[in-house]
């Protein structure tokens, strides 16, 4: 069982930066593939970025070049550094852990990011 807790969201102006964190407990995070998702009001939850257990990263096109996903396995923590934020980045951001063998997934409760002038 993995418990995930996100933090770092807030209200920022367009062009500013935020770093989201996701702390895991209950299991060793290093073996899991880790993802960030987001869900804007009235929209479906969409995938944002992935960092595999081996460290490979992938991004959805809308954030590529502006966001960096990283992990610190010593702290059992996942990060999402977001730069050049836009109003369309406004959403609740969720982290997810996927076990590479049994496919089991775990979600955090989400953290709100609002980009507005």
Outline of the structure:
The chain has 117 residues and is mostly beta strands. The chain has no helices and 11 strands. The protein has strands spanning 3-7, 10-12, 18-25, 33-39, 46-51, 57-59, 67-72, 77-82, 91-98, 105-107, 111-115.
Structure, explained:
Strand 9 and strand 10 form a beta hairpin. This protein is 0% helix and 51% strand. It contains no helices and 11 strands. Strands 2, 4, 5, 6, 9, 10 and 11 form a 7-stranded mixed sheet that branches. Strands 1-3-8-7 form a 4-stranded antiparallel sheet, with no helix packed on it. It has 117 residues and is mainly β. 32% of the residues are buried.
User: What integer is the average pLDDT?
Assistant: 95
Number of E-state strands: 11
Order of helices and strands: EEEEEEEEEEE
Strand content: over 45%
Main beta-sheet strand count, sense and barrel state: 7 strands, mixed
Uncertain runs with pLDDT below 50, 5 residues or more? none
User: How many separate helices?
Assistant: 0
- The backbone outline, from C-alpha atoms, is globular
Based on CA atoms alone, the radius of gyration comes out at 13 Å
Based on secondary structure, the structural category is: mainly beta
C-alpha end-to-end distance = 40 Å
Range of helix content: under 10%
List its traits.
117 residues, mainly beta, 7-stranded mixed sheet, 4-stranded antiparallel sheet, 51% strand, globular
